[in-house]
């Protein structure tokens, strides 16, 4: 594999990743974008040297086209050909290639729509650079006839999806005879590469500019600064196309244009399609080499993660024997119950950090909701003094009250105690709801593999919770009814307000009717007809002082006793829920599931795989195989002569860039004598050494040539010398020794 063939490695990676719906790697690549009618397709046609890309007005490129260019020996008799990834056919006729692109475009994006799915085209031609380009749909603000308005946004999103890849070099094709500040492609590139570090601009239509104008300021970066610069080209005009001017003739005309132009002739060697091709090829090669170590690490990491994902989706392999299937069901039921228990107990390894969950949420329901609600109940808010007086009088029957009847107190407090049943039952429902959430959210990938079994387990578990809820509610009702059935006024914590009772008793002394001889003055008799009895009689109007004190006494007695009941219920209900519902569910779920589900005649149905999971596992396997394939492909990089991987050399803790990163190594080996040279991109000799080996060590001579001139334009000096590398020393130590000798200058 030649030095430049590192591009083929990325081409192979692209094909490997193309089989996946969402490729897991952002591969280094060159993406070509431009607005419609910018001359983008014409530029690509001249680079390739063949007329095969569909051209015309409006939106012609409706999906990304990945052009993988591989040169063949011009001296060979091999025919030029092309292949598509979607088609095994080998194409020799470029008109057929053009038609195949149109056909595949229509399949991916029918009825003048656009598609994110790329077309992969490998071109094996003579006199082309080793290069891979992604031709993107042309940006536009206005859809053509018969195209929906949303196509503008769809094209923009397709282009943006490639530009946002940090590993992509961006080639923007823009007309030089238009205001570059308003160019859609330039704006798009700046959105994702604001500093212009990975953007190169190709200027077209220089031959269409007014005679007195030129684009030198733009080319020199005075208007817009791009690190990769500007390269002007001249495409074939419509007149050239009508006259069927060949691409080769067009290249000659382009060269002549720049060499004879008053402004461009001084930079003619940096203009034109040939120079553009060379620069793109060199940029891509260097970019790939810089990114390979990162890709190696990414691939290894993704393989590890995908393996774990696949193992969780794969589950245990089963034989056709029923006992094996039964063991699988038992294992899954046991794991389900174990996860449920750990979630309730708070011992799960999958602890939630963003919210309360499982047992902790049940505790929150008890203490922060139920107990707090119970403690905030004010018994005096639900009853009026008129109600109390009516109850007292009703309890006295036909007699006047001498003391406040105890029966009135019991009636009133019993009614309030019974009201506590509602929050108790509500608390049970809240805990049951959380138990249902727990079983539905248990993260068991191998369990979800079997949809029928999963549904059956959830159904039985939910029914078991309902059964326990009924049992728990019955006990809760009994607790409340027990408290209401017997009002224990002898409870040690029940305090009588004795001072208040003494005052009320003194005011209610009986009249001295039978203990005095005094008589009341007689009053003239009124009519013997009594007024009618009202249908409803309530205590209304202003209460007397005596009635107010009676009501106050009952209030106080009720409050004192209700606090006792509040405390008991607040303590008993959570305990009852834990015992009858939570712990019973936790400890008895496995035998309940076993008794309802473990039936041999249902094993086959229960272990039918969920088709969604089958498809998910299939895609995961494809992803894993593609990543493994990518790992094998990328290993070829180490066999490419001159390719340097930063991981192969010790890192230098210096601001200076390592010399090997922008150089090529030329080796010559025989059995005992070895030599190599390191050259820069201009083939200037930077460093050379040769050595003679014996059994224990290598004696080496080295020659270091720093760049011709330093920053202040003073001549740099050469360094020469010798050093010894031990055969017994680690390779990394020897490399460090070499590194210390060649660590000079910023290459």
From TrEMBL:
<dbReference type="InterPro" id="IPR003130">
    <property type="entry name" value="GED"/>
</dbReference>
<dbReference type="GO" id="GO:0006897">
    <property type="term" value="P:endocytosis"/>
</dbReference>
<dbReference type="GO" id="GO:0000266">
    <property type="term" value="P:mitochondrial fission"/>
</dbReference>
<dbReference type="Pfam" id="PF01031">
    <property type="entry name" value="Dynamin_M"/>
</dbReference>
<dbReference type="InterPro" id="IPR001401">
    <property type="entry name" value="Dynamin_GTPase"/>
</dbReference>
<dbReference type="InterPro" id="IPR020850">
    <property type="entry name" value="GED_dom"/>
</dbReference>
<dbReference type="GO" id="GO:0005739">
    <property type="term" value="C:mitochondrion"/>
</dbReference>
<dbReference type="Pfam" id="PF00350">
    <property type="entry name" value="Dynamin_N"/>
</dbReference>
<dbReference type="GO" id="GO:0005525">
    <property type="term" value="F:GTP binding"/>
</dbReference>
<dbReference type="GO" id="GO:0005874">
    <property type="term" value="C:microtubule"/>
</dbReference>
<keyword id="KW-0547">Nucleotide-binding</keyword>
<dbReference type="InterPro" id="IPR000375">
    <property type="entry name" value="Dynamin_stalk"/>
</dbReference>
<dbReference type="GO" id="GO:0016020">
    <property type="term" value="C:membrane"/>
</dbReference>
<feature type="domain" description="GED">
    <location>
        <begin position="551"/>
        <end position="642"/>
    </location>
</feature>
<dbReference type="Pfam" id="PF02212">
    <property type="entry name" value="GED"/>
</dbReference>
<dbReference type="InterPro" id="IPR030381">
    <property type="entry name" value="G_DYNAMIN_dom"/>
</dbReference>
<dbReference type="GO" id="GO:0008017">
    <property type="term" value="F:microtubule binding"/>
</dbReference>
<dbReference type="InterPro" id="IPR045063">
    <property type="entry name" value="Dynamin_N"/>
</dbReference>
<dbReference type="InterPro" id="IPR022812">
    <property type="entry name" value="Dynamin"/>
</dbReference>
<protein>
    <submittedName>
        <fullName>Dynamin related protein 1 isoform a</fullName>
    </submittedName>
</protein>
<dbReference type="GO" id="GO:0016559">
    <property type="term" value="P:peroxisome fission"/>
</dbReference>
<feature type="region of interest" description="Disordered">
    <location>
        <begin position="705"/>
        <end position="728"/>
    </location>
</feature>
<dbReference type="InterPro" id="IPR027417">
    <property type="entry name" value="P-loop_NTPase"/>
</dbReference>
<dbReference type="GO" id="GO:0048312">
    <property type="term" value="P:intracellular distribution of mitochondria"/>
</dbReference>
<keyword id="KW-0342">GTP-binding</keyword>
<dbReference type="GO" id="GO:0003924">
    <property type="term" value="F:GTPase activity"/>
</dbReference>
<feature type="domain" description="Dynamin-type G">
    <location>
        <begin position="24"/>
        <end position="293"/>
    </location>
</feature>
